[in-house]
Design goal:
174 residues, mainly alpha, 7 helices
Length: 174
Amino acid sequence: AQNAAQDTESGLRRSLARFDSVVDHHRSAIYSWRRRILSQGAYLQVVAREVSHILSREEHSLLSESDLKRLLKWNERSTQERAAIVSLLWDSERLAPLADLKEKPELRKVILTLIDRYWQQYLAEVEWLEDSISVVAVAGEDPYIRFVEETDQMFHAMRQELSLALLSSIVEAV
């Protein structure tokens, strides 16, 4: 009985280490984005390129233009806000309507705070998943495969929600 318990405990430790490697990959992506925002003067271009990629080009997030406009409450936005959204999502190199925001450090703080908040929520969800994933083994599934699938979906959903929140915050700052 002692050996069986030790084998089970050893297996759980190995699984947790494998789970951590999956989350480390996601952590690297978020931290890299944060570093680029902190280190570049034209941080809005960094944010715009990433948000545009996440919302309109990533396989997990491919939103149609009409879905995106619905999510962003397009019909309730002013002409200036619409121009800012178009620049951010589809013309992130120019960012003409947002040129005057580039030097506002408070906007950079808002952006970084949002990234941190969404990342923390994601980590809390991952922790819950780690605690409950052993149930899948009882059902005959591989907990690691299920964990990778679930965290990948959670990560992409978090990035999509974060992108929408960032876009709204930037547009409100116009």
